[in-house]
Design goal:
By secondary structure, the chain is α+β, with helices and mostly antiparallel strands. Helix content is 26%, strand content 24%. The strands form nine sheets. It has a 15-stranded antiparallel sheet that branches. Strands 10-11-38-37-36 form a five-stranded antiparallel sheet, with no helix packed on it. It is globular, with a radius of gyration of 27 Å. The two termini are 46 Å apart. The N terminus is likely disordered.
C-alpha cells in the first residue's frame, strides 16, 4: 500500500499508519546527494511515495562504575528472553571481510560505521573524524580537510574534493589487501591493512585528534597528493624534492591548490624519497619500515591564497590563521600517540555525574628516554563549559584551530578530560502542581474521556509497526500518569491499564504479528516486518524463522517499519516502548516482576553500558564525542555520514530508560538514563536549537529559522524526512512532550520556534495533530496563550490516525500547559 505521509485520506483503525517520517533506506530517494566534481554537494528534494508496510521506588546505594567494567544492568543478562533468534542472509549480515576477527555484537551507529558498510572503499565510504574526513582504499587511509561548500537557508554543507584534495597515506604494494577493523573503543577505531609479503599497516582514527596515526610493520610507507608540491622541509630545513632519499623525523610539505601544509612525524626516523611531477607529489619509503608515522595539518591557509580556508565569514573550514605556536605544540605532543579512548562515568555525587574521556596513549619516545608528554587533542563547543574546573589542559589561548559545521575546535592537553554533567531529576510528573482550579477540572475531565481511548485494531495485536505502537502505548502510560497527578483514583484506570498491558506484552514477548526477533548476526532486537493485509488486520508473511521481509537487506526490506530491521531509529521506537513499560510498572509492580527481563532487552538494545555483553553493543546510538545520538543505521553508507533528525525523540528515549530504572528500583538504569538524557539535551541546545543570531556555529543565512532539522556528519538541513515545511521541522524537534521536556525546551528557543511554527501551521499541521505541539510550545513562555490554543482542539487531532498527534492526548496537552511556571 502506498500513501503520502500527510494524506487527507486518513486510514481507519484497520489500516496501517503511514507514520511520521521516511525510513532510512529511502532517504536516498527523499534527499538526493550529488557530488559535483568533488567540489560541492547539491541537495535536491525528490518527491516520492515510500513503500512502507506500517504496521516508587528509589534505592539508596550510590553507584560508581566504568563503562568498561563487567557491571551492567544485570551481571549475567544472557540471551534476550521470549524472542526468537534470527540469522540474516548474506546481503544484510555484517561483512566478515571488513570486520576481521571482531565478533557479534557489532556497533551499528559508530562515527566510523561507513568503514564497514557496503564495499567499505567506494566513494560514499567517508568517515568524519573531526577535524578530518577519512576514506579507506585497498592499501591506504586517505585524508581530506573539508570546507564549507554550500550555505543556504535550508542547507549547511561540509564539502571536500575527492580528487585534488585527497592526501593518500598508505603502503607501497602490488597487493590490494583492503582493510579490516582491528579494534575499536568508545572514541576511536583501528584499521588493519594486511598486504601479504609487503607487510602490515594499522591506522588509528580517533575523534578530536589533530593527528592520524599509521603504524607500519615491515611495510613501505607511501604518501601521495594530486596537488603541486610548493615546499618541502625536513627537520625544519628546506630540501629539494629530486628523487633522492632524505632521512628525518619531521617532514613538512606545503601544497598549492588548497594552500595546505601537512606534517609527518616519524618514530623512529625514516628515509623517504620525494618525487614531484606536479602532480602528483609522492613521498615513499626508501625501504621497508617498522615504526609509526603521525600525520597532521599544520596550516590550512599557508600563503593566504585558498578561497576555501583563507576567506569567508568564519564558518565552515575557515580559520583566519592558525595561532602562533600551533606548530610548536604539534611538534611537542606528537610523540603521545592516541589510538583510542574510553568513556567513564561516576554517579556517586547524586545530582551530577563525573564523565571522563580517558585517552588511550602510546608514548613513542619512551624507549629513547625522552620526555613523556600528554596527548594534544581538540575540544568541541558542547564540551568546553562542562570541563571540570580542576582541568588545566587548555592551551593555545582558546584559539579556534579547526572549524566545521559543528563549530570550532580548540586545543586541550591531557590524558583524561574530566567533565561534570548535571543530571535531570524529573520523574513521573511535572515538578509543579496544577494550581488553577478551572484548569485542574478541565484536565480531570480530559483524563476521564481519554481513559476510554483504545489502540487501533491492528495495533491491538501487534500487526502495526513498533514506532507508532510505541508512540500510542507511551500515550496510554502518560494518560494514566496525568490521571495520578490530578487525583484520578487508580481503580478508575484498571481497564485502561489492562489495555496498555495487553498491547505492550505483544511486543516484548515475541507474539506480535509483526514479530520482534533477536538478530544473531548484528546483535540486537529488530522487527521481522509485516506484509500487511486488511480486513481483518493480518500479516501475509509467516514470520520467523524464514519469512521476515524487513531483514532481507534489500531496499524494499529496509523500507519496513521505518528501517527498524536496519537499526534505524531504535532509540525512538524502543524509547517509547520503554516509557510505556515504565509507566505500567509504576502502577503495577507485579507486572515488572514478570516482564522486567523482556523490557530489559529493549533497554539493552539502545542503552547498554556493558562492553562485555555478548548480545548487544555498548550504547548503540550515543556518540560521546559529538555530544548526541545518531539515528541512521546500517542500510547503506551515505556520503554525508551518520545522521539524526528528531533530537527530542532521542531525549525521550533516555527519559524512558531513567523511568524504567525508577519503576523497578534500579539506580544503575535510572542514572544511566539520566546521563544519556543530559548529554542529548546539551547536544540539542548546542546544535539543533538556535535561539539567537548571530550564532557561533551557524552562519546567519542558515540560522534564520532557529532550528536544525536533520544533522549529518557533513551536512545540516532545515527539513525533515517527510517534508520541508517549517511546521514539520519545528514539530519533529518538539515531540513527544512529557514532564522532562522542560529540560529540553528552553524558553529562549521555544519563543522563536513557536513563532515559526504558528506562522506556517495549516492544513495537515492541524488535521494530523501537529498543532497540539504548537500549543505546548507557546505555553512555555505564555501559559494563557497555550491554553487558549489547546482548549478547543477537536479530538481527532489525538486519534490513532493522526500521524503527528497519535502519541499525544488532550490530558497531556492540558496538563503540560497548566504546570508551566
Amino acid at each position: 500500500m502506498e500513501q503520502k505521509r500527510n494524506s487527507k485520506n486518513l486510514p481507519d483503525e484497520g489500516t496501517p499508519l503511514v507514520g511520521r517520517k521516511a525510513d532510512e533506506s529511502y532517504k536516498c530517494k527523499a534527499v538526493t546527494l550529488l557530488l559535483m566534481g568533488g567540489l560541492g554537494v547539491t541537495v535536491v528534494l525528490v518527491a516520492a511515495f515510500l513503500a512502507i508496510d506500517l504496521q516508587r521506588r528509589e534505592a539508596s546505594q550510590t553507584v560508581q562504575h566504568s563503562m568498561h567494567s563487567a557491571s551492567t544492568f544485570t551481571e549475567s543478562p544472557g540471551m534476550p528472553p521470549y524472542l526468537q533468534a534470527f540469522t540474516r542472509n548474506k546481503a544484510s549480515a555484517p561483512k566478515s571481510s571488513l570486520w576481521g576477527d571482531i565478533k557479534r555484537p557489532y556497533p551499528t551507529h559508530a562515527f566510523w560505521e561507513n568503514f564497514v558498510l557496503g564495499t567499505g572503499v567506494d566513494g560514499n565510504n567517508v568517515v568524519t573524524t573531526l577535524p578530518y574526513l577519512a576514506q579507506a582504499t585497498g592499501s591506504s587511509l586517505d585524508l581530506f580537510y573539508p570546507y564549507t561548500s554550500m550555505v543556504t537557508e535550508t542547507q549547511f554543507q561540509l564539502g571536500f574534493d575527492q580528487v585534488v584534495g585527497r592526501l593518500s597515506v598508505g603502503v607501497y604494494s602490488g597487493e590490494d589487501g583492503g582493510h579490516v577493523v582491528d579494534s575499536f573503543s568508545d572514541l576511536g577505531v583501528s584499521l588493519k591493512f594486511d598486504m601479504g609479503d609487503d607487510g602490515v599497516m594499522k591506522s588509528h582514527v580517533v575523534q578530536g585528534s589533530p593527528y592520524v596515526s599509521y603504524e607500519y610493520d615491515q611495510s613501505t610507507p607511501l604518501i601521495t597528493s594530486s596537488q603541486i608540491l610548493r615546499r618541502l622541509m625536513v627537520n625544519n630545513e628546506a630540501v629539494v624534492c629530486d628523487g633522492s632519499p632524505i632521512k628525518g623525523e619531521i617532514f613538512e610539505f606545503s601544497l598549492l591548490q588548497f594552500d595546505e601544509t601537512w606534517r609527518v612525524y616519524a618514530y623512529p626516523a625514516i628515509s623517504l624519497t620525494c618525487t614531484a611531477s606536479n602532480p602528483p607529489m609522492a613521498l615513499m619509503g626508501s625501504e621497508s619500515y617498522t615504526g609509526t608515522l603521525r600525520v597532521a595539518l599544520s596550516n590550512n591557509c599557508t600563503y593566504g591564497q585558498n578561497t576555501h580556508h583563507c576567506q569567508g565569514d568564519g564558518h565552515g573550514g575557515y580559520v583566519a590563521s592558525h595561532p602562533k605556536g600551533y606548530g610548536g605544540l604539534l611538534n611537542k605532543h606528537a610523540s603521545a600517540m592516541v589510538y583510542g579512548g574510553d568513556v567513564q562515568y561516576d554517579f556517586s555525587k547524586g545530582s551530577s555525574a563525573a564523565l571522563n574521556f580517558k585517552w588511550k596513549v602510546k608514548q613513542l619516545n619512551s624507549l629513547n628516554g625522552a620526555e613523556v608528554v600528554s596527548p594534544l587533542m581538540l575540544t568541541m563547543p558542547h564540551q568546553r563549559d562542562v570541563l571540570d574546573s580542576t582541568f588545566n589542559g587548555a592551551v593555545g589561548n582558546n584559539a579556534a584551530i579547526h572549524k566545521s559545521i559543528h563549530g570550532t575546535q580548540q586545543l586541550a592537553v591531557g590524558d583524561v578530560w574530566p567533565m561534570i554533567i548535571d543530571l535531570p531529576d524529573i520523574a513521573w510528573h511535572a515538578p509543579r502542581k496544577v494550581l488553577d482550579a478551572s484548569m485542574l477540572q478541565a484536565i480531570k475531565e480530559a483524563v476521564i474521556t481519554d481513559l476510554k481511548w483504545e489502540l487501533p485494531w491492528n495495533y491491538q495485536t501487534g500487526t502495526g509497526d513498533p514506532y507508532n505502537a510505541g508512540k500510542m502505548l507511551a500515550k496510554m502510560a502518560n494518560i494514566a500518569l496525568v490521571g495520578e497527578a490530578v487525583g484520578i483514583p487508580l481503580k478508575k484506570m484498571t481497564r485502561f491499564l489492562d489495555g496498555l498491558a495487553s498491547g505492550l506484552e505483544y511486543w516484548i514477548n515475541g507474539t506480535s504479528r509483526n514479530t520482534l526477533v533477536y538478530d544473531e548476526s548484528w546483535g540486537g532486537v529488530v522487527s521481522c516486518g509485516c506484509k500487511y493485509a486488511y480486513p481483518p488486520p493480518r500479516c501475509l508473511n509467516s514470520g520467523p524463522p524464514n519469512d521476515c521481509p524487513a531483514l532481507n537487506g534489500d531496499p524494499v526490506g529496509n523500507g519496513f517499519d521505518f528501517g527498524n530491521g536496519a537499526y534505524n531509529d531504535h532509540h525512538f521506537h524502543y524509547g517509547y516502548l520503554t516509557y510505556a513499560a515504565a509507566g505500567l510498572a509504576h502502577f503495577r509492580p507485579s507486572w515488572s516482576s514478570k516482564w522486567g527481563p523482556a523490557v530489559l532487552s529493549l533497554v539493552r538494545d539502545i542503552a547498554n553500558p556493558n562492553g562485555n555483553d555478548k548480545y548487544f553493543p555498548k550504547f548503540r546510538h550515543m556518540d560521546w564525542y559529538a555530544g548526541h545520538s545518531w539515528a541512521g543505521g546500517v542500510a547503506m553508507a551515505y556520503l554525508n555520514g551518520r545522521n539524526q533528525e528528531s533530537v527530542s525523540e532521542a531525549f525521550n528515549a533516555w527519559y524512558g530508560v531513567s523511568l524504567w530504572g525508577r519503576a523497578i528500583g534500579d539506580n544503575k538504569i535510572r542514572d544511566t538514563g539520566r546521563l544519556l538524557a543530559a548529554i542529548e539535551a546539551r547536544g540539542a541546545h548546542t546544535y539543533w536549537q538556535i535561539p539567537s543570531i548571530p550564532n557561533d556555529i551557524y552562519p546567519t543565512t542558515f540560522a534564520k529559522h532557529h532550528t536544525a532539522g536533520i544533522i549529518w556528519s557533513n551536512l545540516i538541513q532545515y527539513q525533515t524526512w517527510f517534508g520541508m515545511l517549517q511546521w514539520e521541522v519545528q514539530g519533529i524537534q518538539t515531540l513527544p512532550v512529557t514532564p522532562a521536556s522542560e529540560l529540553l525546551l528552553n524558553a529562549s528557543w521555544t519563543r522563536v520556534a513557536a513563532e515559526t511554527f504558528e506562522s506556517t501551521c495549516s492544513g495537515t499541521c492541524n488535521t494530523d495533530g501537529w498543532i497540539t505541539f504548537l500549543c505546548m510550545l507557546k505555553a512555555v513562555n505564555n501559559k494563557e496563550e497555550g491554553w487558549k490554543c489547546a482548549e478547543n482542539l477537536p479530538s481527532t487531532v489525538y486519534s490513532g490516525q493522526a500521524a503527528g498527534g497519535n502519541g499525544n492526548s488532550r490530558s497531556n496537552t492540558l496538563y503540560w500547559i497548566a504546570t508551566r511556571p
